[in-house]
Amino acid sequence: MFAPGMSIAQAICTVLRGEGDDLRDGDICVIAQKIVSKVEGRAVELDAFTPGTEAEELARLTDREPTMAQAILDESAEILRATPAAIVARHRSGHVLANAGIDASNVEGAEDGTVLLWPRDPDASARAIRTELQKATGIKPGVVIADSMGRAWRIGTVGTAIGCAGLTVLEDRRGRAQDLFGRTLQATVIAVADSIAAMGTLAMGEGAEGTPVALVRGAGRWVGAEDGPGAASGLRPMEQDMFR
């Protein structure tokens, strides 16, 4: 149960040492977005939002409370689709997802209107946690901040990297690798950070498990000394968006 100002890095170190373990070279920490948002003070009361004309219309179209509609608008760069099932928004960070990432599950006070917003800059959050882990342990692990997101062509959600530091986000194998029959790969770009986020999210669970961090080992080939470009580098450029 994380609260504003708490240290995620110190919590990770405390739990590991309590188990007689510590971070190792090549480790990757997959961290649930919710605890990052909590320590960054991103819990808000919906009553704090004053709906404008656009929010009132969005609420009418989607059967939502006007205050929730205003919160989504405030967190979004663009609304792409608006239906009762979901408001698909481009978050200010560039990620496209339902309701601009605003959620009430596993949030204390949700029954009274408290919701949780995404970190303002998830990549910056990942870099900060990585720096603190290095100061505490001397190890520079990969850090992934993960949230569950839907996919355009599939049913269900999957853990996705919304913030990343020290980890390859995309492994581009086009023109550099061959298949079993010697044909050069032409279109293969592996979403490494998303794949690891998905694996970590499966281990953490999405209900009352109370496990907000997963430690991934055996994927050190993708961990680097530099923080790297972050999860934002894995976003499809808007001019390539096939759904616009």
CATH superfamily membership of the largest domain, which one?
CofE-like
Secondary structure: helix percent: 25-40%
Count of β-strands = 11
The share of residues in extended strands comes to 15-25%
Give unreliable regions as ranges.
Answer: none
Largest sheet: 4 strands, mixed
CATH topology of the largest domain: 60s Ribosomal Protein L30, Chain: A
Helix-strand pattern, N to C? HEHEHHEEEEHEEEEHE
CATH-derived architecture of the largest domain: 2-Layer Sandwich
Mean pLDDT: 95
User: Total number of helical segments?
Assistant: 6
State the separation between the terminal residues, measured CA to CA.
39 Å
Secondary-structure-based class equals alpha+beta
Q: Radius of gyration, rounded?
A: 19 Å
CATH class of the largest domain: Alpha Beta
Number of domains: 2
The largest sheet has its strands arranged as 8-7-1-11
Shape verdict: globular
InterPro entries: F420-0_g-glutamyl_ligase, F420-0_gamma-glut_ligase-dom
Protein name: Coenzyme F420-0:L-glutamate ligase
Organism: Novosphingobium mangrovi
GO molecular function: coenzyme F420-0:L-glutamate ligase activity
Task: Provide structural commentary.
By secondary structure, this protein is α+β, with helices and mostly antiparallel strands. It is built from 6 helices and 11 strands. Strands 8-7-1-11 form a 4-stranded mixed β-sheet. Strands 3-4-5 form a 3-stranded antiparallel β-sheet. A hairpin with a 2-residue loop joins strand 7 (about 140-150) and strand 8 (about 155-165). The longest helix has 16 residues, at about 120-135.
